[in-house]
Amino acid sequence: MTSRLDTLLAFAARRSPRYTSYPTAPHFHAGVDAETYGRWLERLNPAAPVSLYLHVPYCKSLCWYCGCNTRATTRDEPVAAYLEILLAELAQVADRLPARLTVSHLAFGGGTPAILSPSQIDRVMDAIRSRFDCADDAEITMEIDPRHFTREDAAALARNGFTRASTGVQSFDPAVQAAINRTQPYELVEAAFNRLRQAGVSKINADLLYGLPKQTVESARVSAQAAAALEPSRLAVFGYAHVPHMMAHQRLIKDADLPGPAERIAQHDAMEEALAGSGYAVIGIDHYARPDDPMTKALEAGVLRRNFQGYTTDKAQTMIGLGASAIGENPSGYVQNIADVRAYGQAVADGRLPVHRGVAVDAEDKMRRAIIERIMTDLKVNPAAIAAAHGLPVPQIDVRELRAAGIVHRDGPWLIVDPRFKPLARLLAAAFDGYLAVAEVKHSVSV
Predict the structure, then answer these.
(1) In whole angstroms, what is the distance from residue 430 CA to residue 408 CA?
(2) What is the pLDDT of residues 293-337, one digit of tens each?
(3) Do the Cβ atoms of 308 and 327 come closer than 8 Å?
(4) Is 187 buried (19+), middle (13-18) or exposed (0-12) by CB count in 10 A?
(5) What is the pTM of this model?
(6) Apex CA 396: angle with CA 358 and CA 13, to 5°?
(7) For residues 280 and 288, is the Cβ–Cβ distance under 8 A?
(8) How far apart are alpha carbons 67 and 197 in whole angstroms?
(9) Interacting residues of 280 by C-beta distance below 8 A, sequence separation 6+
């Protein structure tokens, strides 16, 4: 009988999208341009809430594992100049909307958006509130770097109504931290948590990674236990994606220092065991939350969502992305801004929405997206019920290999991913992907 490890190893190297969208980003194209996006904005439902995402592509130092669109700077001037462009884009987008819309979720990402000074955070929040209404229960989040997070920063978040902060932890192992150029002792991270809580920002997320250079199963376990001891509301545990051909700075990480597939699986399992043992509920394929957290409750109710920010409780069908490389979605499709900061800024200065590419969605896309979202959130799906709700035939798929391996089984109309193989849920989702080419190699490995 094939063991769980053997099955995971047999499928682990297969590349598949993370399905934070459908169609996925490699299928975006230049045919969706600024004018197309402008028309999409104009026909949004004025009564429907929206989400805002603001991308700040700067950090004070560059971590070698990073796969984000960011750059390091120790100077204030580039960030200040970028903020002016970001606020100008905000105004351009707001001018194209059919009305003053209500924001249900607002997130700042990057990079390290907390590189903005307290006065700059005041300014951008004032600008947002001058053009949008924030719902009374809106979730407002900021990604922070605990190495550069002060009491003044925490106070700025609190006075501007931020309800949640997300902290990059990655690993507490000094050898791993040295290998990824991110040294931050436990006490430093704990101090950032304390500053947030003392300021009144009590909902805190923590991000961890496995598969890092010099990382071992034991150090992965210890890092997860240490992170849980900080009592974050939620944790995300991602597998490090080593793509030095795409991210030049990752060439500073030696291939020989990276764990192999079996070691990566063991690290993932050790971290999950530690977090589940600390009382966290398992959310989807890579998140964990307290039993009383809204994310856990959304999972139990079958209404958990997945978008470019990962798992979310946000019910908005529109996410407006602002900033260089930011991705947005709405009922008509997806758009992505120009990634290069200079070209992005020039487009905004020219009075153009700085859209680089996107993709329109049709009725079949929406049906397949709904099926894939349920697989990625619930690890199970009733394709016939979703197809019927969309008035379309059930997609014809071939999952015989996944079923033969025990990864997926049928229960009446339901397709169910065995929880032991949840990292491979992406493979079941891929079976419903009408765009995914057999030879697609742009995505990360599945485990």
Answers:
(1) 13
(2) 999 999 999 999 999 989 999 999 999 999 999 999 999 999 999
(3) yes
(4) exposed
(5) 0.94
(6) 65
(7) yes
(8) 29
(9) 228, 235, 288, 289, 290
From CA 288, how far away is CA 234, in angstroms rounded? Answer: 6
The one-letter amino acid code at 271 reads M
* Beta-ladder partners of 206: 167, 235
pLDDT band for position 444 (50/70/90)?
Answer: low
Say which DSSP state 394 is in.
P
Distance CA 424, CA 407 (A): 8
- Residues facing 141 on adjacent strands: 107, 164
H helix or E strand, kind and range, residue 68 = none
- Per DSSP, 229 falls in state H
pLDDT above 50: residue 247: yes
Say which DSSP state 239 is in.
E
Q: Where are the domains of the chain?
A: 1-23+362-447, 27-322
Taking the C-alpha atoms of residue 287 and residue 237, their distance in angstroms, rounded to an integer, is 6
Placement of tokens 């429907």 in the chain: 48
Which H or E run contains 340? none
Interatomic CA distance for residues 421 and 406, integer angstroms: 9
**CATH architecture of residue range(s) 1-23+362-447:** Orthogonal Bundle (1.10)
Tokens 């109710």 correspond to 301
pLDDT higher than 50, residue 379: yes
Non-local CB neighbours of 47 within 8 Å, separated by 6+ positions: none
Question: Residue by residue, what is the 3-state secondary structure of 78-122?
Answer: HHHHHHHHHHHHHHHHHHHCCCCCEEEEEEEEECCHHHCCHHHHH
Which residues are 328's β-sheet partners?
Answer: 335
Distance CA 10, CA 428 (A): 15
CA–CA separation, 114 vs 445, rounded Å? 31
20: amino acid identity, one letter: T
> Within 13 Å and on the Cβ side, how many CA atoms surround 444?
17
Paired residues of 236 in beta bridges? 207, 287
Phi, psi of 283 (to 5 degrees): -115, 115
Question: In the 8-state DSSP scheme, what is residue 339?
Answer: S
Of 107, 100, 43, give the one whose Cα is nearest residue 330: 43
pLDDT tens track for 33-75: 999 999 999 999 999 999 999 999 999 988 988 888 888 899 9
Q: Do domains 1-23+362-447 and 27-322 have the same CATH topology?
A: no
Between CA 94 and CA 130 the distance in angstroms is 10
Q: 163: how many CB neighbours lie within 10 A of its CB? A: 18
CATH 3.20.20.70 fits 27-322, yes or no: yes
Per DSSP, what are the bridge partners of residue 288? 235, 282
In the block, residue with structure tokens 């040295």: 178
